[in-house]
Amino acid sequence: MRSSNYHDQHLTAVDLFAENIYCNHDYMGKAGSGENHVPRHNHIKGQFLYTEGGIVHVTTDEKNYFLPARHYMWIPAGIMHSIKANAEHVMMRNLYYPVAAEEPEFYSHIGIYPANDLLLEMLFFTGRWNGQVTPQQATAFGFMQSLKNILPEVSSYSLPLSLPYPKTDRLLEIVRYLYAHMEENILFPDVARHFGFSERTLARVFMQELNMSFVQFFTLQRMMKALQLLLEERHTVNETAYMVGYNSVPTFSNTFYKIVGTRPSDYVKMKGVLQHKG
Asked: 29, 9, 66, 46: which is closest to 228 by C-alpha?
């Protein structure tokens, strides 16, 4: 699939000048492109991605990542990925950085991190610049470089908001079944029996193909769906809990907190925070 001319030009410009920082603040459907998808591509620069106003999935060769509100994603240089939003009006705030010699380990790993107030204020301040930012533009270049430099300090943990892809059709069928029946009280022994596995064999398959247990995978799958339901503002926290298979709202809230770092009721309030700036 080809992107629109706008996205083509944007992706080409990112690596046009190796020494520059490339800055882009714009809506996914810029210039009437009618698209909410940026096809598979990579950069020779590292990418800082922050989005507002919708649901965004970033897909690599190995995993599908969910980028929630009030969080940013760091994508290291060379990582093949595509980006899909649920609407054209999603704001994409991208900063692309040259790879420096002997960078901290932080910049070599893909991750999703909470964005604190300091980082957000700095990011929105960069909204006054767009396009190529050269080292000769001392103020702009220095400010954007400072934003990159503080990331390891303000990003103490990465959210596990990604799901690995099954390597075989048999597990893919099970994963799709779990997603389609998420609201039900699904138990591991029932799933194993339904698909003709022993519990021990199916547990081994999950660990071998996904490097996580059935419970870990299904919990993440449920929480990523819950984030989507909450962000779309179509359902209350109580409704969302039941729609992803939790009969106890407190249990759902505690699980959500462990993974996302905030309560679902508080998370809903954060949607669109400071969106009017920049």
From this structure: 66
